[in-house]
Amino acid sequence: MGSMVVRPTPVASKAAVAKATDTAALHAVPQQQPQQHAQRKLEAFPVLKQASGALMFGGVLVMIAAFFRNKFTKQPFKFVEFEGTTVQAGNNLAMFSTTGVKTALVVTNKGGGHGEIGFHLALALRAKGLAVQLVNDNGGKDVTSKLPFSEYAQLTAAGVEVFFTDLSQPRAIDSVSGLTRQYDHVFDNENVCQGAVAELAASCGAFYTYVSSGGMYLPGEMFPMPEYNPTKGADKNKQKAHEEFVMSNAIRPRLSGCAFFRPQYIVGPYTNKRDYLDWFFDRLTRDIPLPLPAPGTQTTTVTDARDVASMLASVVGKERMIADRNPVFNCASDQSLSLTDIVMICGEACGKTPEECRKLIKLYDPAAAKDAPSGGKFPFRATNFDVGVEKAKAVLGWEAQYNDFKYVASGYFRGYQALGLDKENPKMDTSFDKHVLGFNGTASPGSSTKTANSQEALQAANEALETALGKAEVILTWVLGPDAMKDLDREKAQEALKIIDDLVYSRKRAATVAADPVQAQALVEKAEKKSQLVKDVLFAMLMKHNAEFAVGGSGVPAKQPSAALAAPATFSPFF
Fold first, then answer.
1. Helix (H) or strand (E) holding 526
2. pLDDT tens readout for residues 52-65
3. Exposure string over 292-303, b if 16+ CB within 10 A, otherwise e
4. Neighbour-count burial of 385, counting CB atoms closer than 10 A to its CB (0-12 exposed, 13-18 middle, 19+ buried)
5. Partner of 301 for a Cys bridge, out of 377, 383, 386, 504, CB 3.0 to 4.6 A?
């Protein structure tokens, strides 16, 4: 289908008059802006038309004030050219624009993990006083009955002009009728025609903000991951390739500036990708075991789309704070969560007790998932994958407003119930669960036939755990104290692993500046071996846990989990 435009409801705006100051100017202004630019803004944005008359009147008042001030202070006059308007003022430089309102274009996709960002971003920009046009990809179909597009009446009521078009078509952006094509800011939240959007931003000298992806990061040893964390190459990641294109001589010199934001897992109001949290609710509400990749302490960030939008919008007014050579910002909540934390908090939202949630958690070996079917796969990475957002806080002055995951999860669950998904979810799939846990996907897996293999596996797991504990006894005692082996559970083993891994990291940093690099590297390798011994203990605990579960699932009364497999009673930073 062709492009479609939704015109905004006229919104009254207060006239803005630039204040005279004792410094040079209140804000940076373009010195060589063609007069047609201002006229195009007026023609394209209804909000600007309403404001322009009042701004001209306000400008006259500023000129009169400047005249009388100079008359009595005998200060010399200066002439300032600003957007085609000459202002006569004294040493207190007075400036005003024939438009007065900054303009922004938001180009956004039709779905996926970033689907709702455009909606919240447009509202955030309007709240900052910008005139906004939004182009939404529709893939050639009518998407207006689906979220978040079914809520776009809120945008038009706020004064946003909305256009729908198929961005996959040649010259799609060029063919959208009604765009002003002269903007102060261009926000690009799609990966269909991002090259064309960047070119549009460059053609009008706009500040270009690209919604990239945190998925390009290669998890290393530092968590939360900083912006300088290693990434996939441009040949392996589409977003990384576009970042490099924007910084090339073909685009960057013609932009007033640029910024790249790398979001991770996004949830929030009006999402059309519910997989991240619905995966947990599907199992919790049906009392189906939740397979978590061992050890379950891996950390990640789950971010409300409104916080993503506010971070993107925070570039307005901070353009000069963003250094050309490092325009990358992690875009996520400032609160990291472990995978077990997510289960427990989602369970609380469902009305389950912590004990009920713990009983449903079943750990699996991440290696077992490599050939697992994709249906119903675990929605997060099996490794640590959280990012740090201190740079956005320091440079852009951004602060998260929706970083209480309990609040986010409870709101999400209400939406889950409203859709009736707790009763029936056609998209629910347990193929992945069956593969990694080896059960039949029902609430009572004990209907399977008892086999000798399950008993043999349990015996082998017990022996493997005893062997691993024997090898790690010295290091566990050294880290946890003389009573380490008494009632050792998973939480204590995880605590020991965290301490040792911190030691590995500190020794690696010290090795980079050590006077004797050979000796320093030997200390690193020694710490790494200790870490591996504790990892072996945790893995053996996992194998025993799963073997006991398999025995229970075969109709044989399973023994109570040993102390080494007992889930921790409370949250800790590592669990």
1. helix 517-553
2. 454 445 444 444 44
3. bbbbbbbbbbbb
4. buried
5. 386
